[in-house]
Amino acid sequence: MQRRVFAPTIDFDRIRRELDLTADFPPEATAEAQSAADRFGDGRVDRTAIEFVTIDPPGSKDLDQALHVVADGDGFLVHYAIADVAALVEPGGAIDTESHERGQTMYFPDGSVPLHPRPLSEGIGSLLPDQVRPAVLWTVRVDGSGDVVAVDVERATIRSRERFDYADVMTAYDAGTLHPSIAALPAFGRTRRDWSLQRGAVQLDLPDQEIVPHEGGRAWTLQMAPRTPADDWNAQVSLLVGMCAGDIQRKAGIGLLRTVPPASDQAITELRAAAQHLGVTWADGASPGEFLAALPADAPTTLALMTVGARLMRGSGYLSLEPGTDYRDADVVHAGVGGVYAHATAPLRRLGDRYVTEVCLAVTSGRDVPDWVAAALGSLRKTMASSDQRASTAERRSVDLTEAVVLADQIGARFDAVVMRDPNGERSAEVFVSAPAIVGPCADAPAAGAACTVEVTVADTESAVIGFRAVASAAQSLR
Predict the structure, then answer these.
(1) CA pair distance 190, 146, nearest whole angstrom
(2) Which of 52, 89, 102, 353 has the most Cβ atoms closer than 10 angstroms to its Cβ?
(3) Could you give the residue ranges of the DSSP H alpha helices within 310-370?
């Protein structure tokens, strides 16, 4: 009963207009980007001998990170080069002013609304292959258990050798031909993932809907975003550096942290109750994160449990550290990663990363944090929270609109589905249809974790609202 359903061209401009977003920049900002030069060129160390590579989604042009991960005894030596945006943006200039208005790059299925003018974010600032670029280089040694044993941060010049996407990495891994610069990445990624789970980290694996073009962009559909082990291995490098940045700032008492409070007792109790209801064993002594990580990916009950598990991660935010203030561990922790954390690895796409990087450079070299950085930290918390909300809205509205257009001529059509969430108060049950990848409310649904057949009852393209009704279900929840 699964089928691939396509929609005609969709007007994503409608959402950009609603959110007052434009990819255009003031002429002054564009001119600054076209003439941008390295403000710290005289103080850089030459690290072009390190054979960096990049791993990004296909088609990406704003390449923030380049990596080199090798075995080091029973541990690992990680070199992680981050685009040095502060070297190309004059504090108080036109680009700086505009980027504070934007907060971060906003992504749409048909293109992005960038944080910085494209001549900077996709040109001189991007760590493109075979180009010498200014970068901030993190060098981190990790022992065999996953603990960080040494951290260094410096301004450097680097040159990436190769550009890969995640499918490239997996193809090479399966063939045993990984590039030497990332041959140790799988072992590193698994080591750090285990390390974080032991410290209470929670990794949620909920459906990630991806809007993809068909017939050269003349039609669209939704599919599950491909997620490979390479995505996770690469993410562990970014998480490592983000946790190092968080630790540096926390010890110095200045900077910008990304926070998620520890899961409430109620959220953990609800997850345990859901597991018991669905007949899924929770191993003795396993943390919520370890329980979720051990669930079989292809079981319908896993989707329901991950949905309940999302309640563990409520309350995300930012914290601007004030010098002299005594913070409790619960104030500064990011429970999702199992420690103190800061966004530091995507300054071409997130404003706050530029400032976190400058704090870390200053602290590790024994210098005062630059005045232009310290002065902005208080307001950055609100700027980033606001832009996060707008980015989330842009993504959600894009998906909602695409779902409605895809299903507009499918009223009465039936699809196989899995119930993600039971009805709760005024909220309907929620189901997941895998092809096309759609999540929506459903009337008459069986219990969470059950497989069922649903019928499309609503698909309103004006309001971008959809709805299903369950018409048949398995005799019992699949377990």
Answers:
(1) 9
(2) 353
(3) 329-332, 351-365
CB 125 within 8 A of CB 82: no
Give this prediction's pTM: 0.94
**Alpha-carbon distance values, 121 to 25, 98, 112, 235 (Å):** 13, 14, 12, 21
134 phi and psi, to 5 degrees? -70, 135
For 301-358, the pLDDT digits (tens) are 999 999 999 999 999 999 999 998 999 988 999 999 999 999 999 999 999 999 999 9
Q: Are 305 and 420 in contact (CB under 8 A)?
A: no
In three state form, how does the secondary structure of 39-79 look? CCHHHCEECCCCCEEEECCCCCCCCCEEEEEEEECCEEEEE
CA 158, chain centre distance (Å)? 25
Return the axis-axis angle of helices 185-198 and 229-252, rounded to nearest 10°: 60
Single out the residue of 151, 141, 108 nearest to residue 365, CA to CA.
Answer: 151
DSSP alpha helix (H) spans, 35-184: 94-102, 118-119, 166-175
3-class secondary-structure state, position 338: coil
Q: How far is CA 465 from CA 92, 223, 404, 441, 458, in A?
A: 43, 19, 6, 10, 7
- Going by C-beta distance under 8 Å and a sequence separation of 6 or more, which residues neighbour residue 240? 78, 80, 140, 142, 148, 192
